[in-house]
Specification:
This protein has about 300 residues and is mainly beta. It contains one helix and 19 strands. It has a single domain (about 5-310), classed as Sandwich (Jelly Rolls), CATH 2.60.120.200. It has one helix at about 20-35; strands at about 45-50, 60-65, 70, 75-80, 85-90, 90-95, 110-115, 125-130, 135-145, 165-170, 180-190, 195-205, 205, 210-215, 225-235, 245-250, 260-265, 280-290, 295-310.
């Protein structure tokens, strides 16, 4: 689709955003250390930051660990004088949707990552990876915007209503390398479309059962709001030590302080048996929706960050 010229400006095209993106990215490195993006307990060193201001998925503002996005099912979007797609399927584009009523305002800066679930479709997943060996301990954080029309459909079985939110693994998604896999998911909480979220720890020392039940999205109160999710995860110090941990914080856009929703200590989060593949080296955001949305549903992601443990 051609651009609507009446809405275009110089900043519409990614190539013309370069100067602005550079200045924002320089500021980003300083901001992630002491800014409001981390809870008070933060003890990490920032190694990845992507606010998507470059207009592609290939140029994070900070990238000290060989980070890359892969197998994309996302787009980069902006509300630059009206909703605009600027990246799709690995290609830089400049295309306005037919529906100009989209709510694609970034959390900060101009751009955000769009994860669109078309009505009735289950799979929308954004994978990422770092260089091997992976990280034995890490912080991972991102801003997530609740869709304006979010409604989590209850199903007859709990196994049919589990939506993925985050997964981290080493080299093998299925865990066949002898390592653990951790993550977050969410399910319906009430018939009004609200949901709760919970943790998952899979691996040789754990069975991957649901961990916790904290309200995730309250309908209608949270529709259209941004939340900041932060996860700190650490492998056990040696096989069988069971001193691994996974902690989860969250803060809504109108809140000053983070709330610690989960703190799982003394966990058998185990690294790979393969000496060449040690620690978390891959993951994905969102993912399979067992309970498909009945309407086209847009999640936005912004200010994705990873920090190594000090």
């Amino acid at each position: 689709m051609a651009n609507n010229d009446a809405h275009d400006t110089r900043t519409t095209f990614p190539a013309n955003r370069a100067a602005q993106a550079v200045s924002l990215n320089v500021a980003a490195r300083a901001a992630v250390v002491a800014g409001p993006n981390w809870p008070a307990e933060f003890d990490g060193v920032p190694v990845v930051f992507d606010g998507f201001e470059s207009g592609t998925l290939s140029s994070p503002a900070i990238n000290d660990v060989g980070f890359s996005w892969s197998e994309t099912s996302s787009e980069i979007v902006t509300m630059d004088n009206g909703p605009l797609l600027i990246y799709r399927d690995g290609l830089v584009v400049s295309e306005r949707p037919t529906d100009m009523t989209k709510s694609w305002q970034a959390r900060s800066g101009n751009n955000a990552m769009l994860m669109n679930y078309p009505a009735g479709q289950n799979w929308v997943e954004q994978r990422f990876s770092t260089a091997n060996p992976g990280m034995l301990g890490m912080w991972i954080a991102w801003d997530l915007r609740v869709p304006d029309n979010y409604y989590h459909n209850p199903q007859a079985s709990a196994s049919d209503e589990n939506q993925k939110l985050l997964r981290l693994w080493t080299d093998a998604y299925a865990g066949s390398d002898g390592a653990s896999k951790v993550g977050l998911s969410f399910r319906p909480l009430r018939d009004d479309g609200s949901s709760y979220y919970f943790g998952k720890i899979f691996g040789p020392a754990t069975n991957g059962g649901d961990k916790g039940n904290v309200e995730f999205i309250n309908v209608p109160r949270d529709l259209g709001k941004w939340m900041r999710l932060v996860v700190r995860v650490q492998f056990e110090s040696s096989v069988g030590a069971n001193d691994g941990s996974m902690t989860v914080w969250r803060k809504w856009e109108d809140q000053t302080d983070f709330t610690k929703d989960y703190d799982w200590q003394n966990q058998g989060i185990r690294t790979s048996n393969d000496a060449d593949i040690t620690g978390f080296a891959a993951g994905f955001l969102l993912g399979y929706a067992n309970s498909a949305y009945t309407e086209d549903t847009d999640f936005l992601i912004d200010n994705f960050e990873i920090a190594s443990l000090t």
